[in-house]
User: Fold this.
Amino acid sequence: MTPKNLFQKVWEAHSVKALSNGQTQLFVGRHLIHEVTSPQAFGMLREKGLPVRYPERTFATVDHIVPTNESSEPYSDPLADAMIKELRKNCEDFGVTFFDVSTGKQGIVHVVGPEQGLTQPGMTIACGDSHTSTHGAFGAIAFGIGTSQVRDLLATQTMALGKLKVRRIEVNGDLAPGVYAKDVILHIIRKLGVNGGTGYAYEYAGDVFDRFTMEERMTVCNMSIEGGARAGYVNPDETTFEYIKGRPYAPKGDDWEKAVENWRSFASDEGCDYDDIISIRAQEIPPTVTWGINPGQAIGVDESIPSPDKVAEDEKAGTVEALEYMKLTPGIPLEGTPIDVAFVGSCTNGRISDLEEVAKHLNGQKVKDGVHAIVVPGSQIVSQMAVEKGLDKVFINAGFEWRAAGCSMCLAMNPDKLIGDQLCASSSNRNFKGRQGSPTGRTMLMSPVMVAAAAITGQITDARKVFQN
Amino acid sequence: MPLAKINQVSGTAVYVPGDDIDTDRIIPARFMKCVTFDGLGEYLFHDVRFDEQGRKKDHSLNDDKFVDSSIMLSGKNFGCGSSREHAPQSLYRAGFRAIIAGNFAEIFFGNSINLGIPCVGMDAEDRASLAQWIEANAETQVTVDVDLLQVRAGNLTLPCKMRAGARDSLLNGAWDPLDELLSVSSEVDQVAKQLNYV
Assistant:
C-alpha cells in the first residue's frame, strides 16, 4: 500500500464526492459554533426551512462577546446580550448542545473542544473561527470557515473544500531555556511569512513536537492560520491519547482500545510523500516578539527594531507602515520598549499550563506601577483548576486582575480593550492594526512568560533576565 | 432560484493601497456584534476612514468621486486574518461586486466566491498601471472579465488570474454549493456510518 500522510488519510475517509466546481464534498465529524459567526447561518436555515442535519455533531459555546468582569445577565452591552440570547435560542430550537455560562463548561471554543474530549485524532473539525486549526494538535484536520459554510454544515454536515497540499515542518534539537511553544510558531511564521502557508496544511514534526505536551502543540497549531496555512496538525501519539483519556466525550470502556487503534492508523506513514519539507534547528529559536502589524513581523528579544533600508525591497513599504503605526524607531533595541498593558490569555495561551508557567515565575514579583495587567483563563474549567491550585492568588498578589473566561482582549468584541495608542504585551495571536479595540492601539505578541516579564519591568524584557529563579 | 452566472462585473473602481490588508482592517471586530449581516456595509474600513471622533479621514473610500464604486483594487495578501464572513459581507453590502488584488488569503477568497464576488489576482506592475488609470478616470467603468481572465479599463487590457474551480463556479452559476451538497443525502449518511467515531 502506498504510504500516506495523515492529511491524505483523513481527507479520503471523509470525502463524499467530487463537486462540479472541482472541490470535494467533505464530511465534517465535529462542528463547533459560537455566538459571532453562527446566528446569520441559523437565520439562513430558517429562511430556507431546513433542519440541522446531525444536531449531535454540533457543539456550541459563547466566548467572543462575553464580558470577563461581569457575570450577570442582561449584559450591559445590549448587542452582546442579544447575541448570547440568540445563540441560546438557536441551540434550543435546533437541538444543539450548548456549553452555556451556567454549565461551568463555557470558555473559548478552542479550549472547550479539547477539554471536553470532543477533539479526537483522525477527525475533520470545523468552526466559524480561523483559530480552529488549534484542534489539529490532536491529529485532526481542523479549519476555520465562513458563515455560509457554517450554514452548509448545519444543513448537510458537509462542506465544499479544495484539497490542500501538505508541508512538513520539522523542528529538531533542544529549545534554549526560556523558549516556549509560542516562540516556535512565531519563529516559523517569521521565517515562512504570513502567506507562506497559502494552499497548505502544515504537519509539525520532529523531536521538539514529540516532546511537547498537548497544550504546547495546541499553541503552535493555533497560529497556523497566521502563517497562511488553513490547517496545521501534529501526528497523534501516546501523549495525545493520554490527554484525551477520561474526558467527558472520550470513548469509554471497550470502545477506548478500539478508538486508540483507529486513531493510531491515521498517523502519517513512514516514507509518505509531502509537497514540501522544511527543517528548523530548535537551538536557533529565540524568545520571539512581534514589533509590527502582522505576526510575521517578529524578531528575537535581543534584536533591534528593523530598519526599512535593510529589509528586502518588497517588504520596505510594509516595514515603513508598521514602524509608523507602532511608533517605533528603527535600529533601537526592542528590549526597553515601554508597555502599558499586559494580557495573558486567549485560545493561543489561555490554558492551565500557560497560567501555571507564568505563576511559577511570578511568585513574589509585582506588576510595575502604571501597567494594567490582566489574566483571563481560557475556560471556566481552566479557571476552576487554577483556583484549586491557588494560581489566582499568585496573579492577584502580583497585581494582575483575575478575570472570568472568554476571548477578552484578544479581539475587542467585549469590554476589554486598549485605549488610545496603548502598547500591549500580549499572549494572543494577532497584532493587526486596531485588533485590541482601539484604532491606534498597539500589540506585541509573545509568550505568556515574556508578557509577565514585561508586566513586571514595564517594558519588553528578556524574561530570563527577570526571572532568574 | 438558480444562481446568476457571473461572466463579468462592470462598474467604477476604487484603489485602496496597501499589502496584507487584514479582515480587522476591512471590518473592525467591534462592529461584528450583530445577529444579521444587514448594515455591515456602513463600517467597511471604518478605522482607516474615520478618526476617533468619527470625522472623515483622507481615504479613497471617503472621496466623493469613488463613492459609487463597485470594484476594489488593492495589494498583496488581501483579506488575511480571520475567517469571518463579515469581511466579504461588508464589502458586498457596501456595493462591491469584484475585487482585484495581488493575491488573496485563502478563507477570504472562498467566502467571497460563496457570495458571488469574483476575486482576481493581478501582477504588481499591472496593478500600478490600473491604479493610475482609476485615479485619472474615476467616473469611467472598469470590467473584470471572469471568462476571459482580463481586466479592461479604457485602453488598458490587463491579464488577471483566478483558480479554475472558483472561476468555473462563477461562470456556471454554481458559486453557492448548498444545493449540490444537499442533493446527495444518502451518500453523506454512508460516509458518516463508515467513520469509526466512537
User: Anything to note?
Assistant: The longest helix of chain A spans residues 78-94.
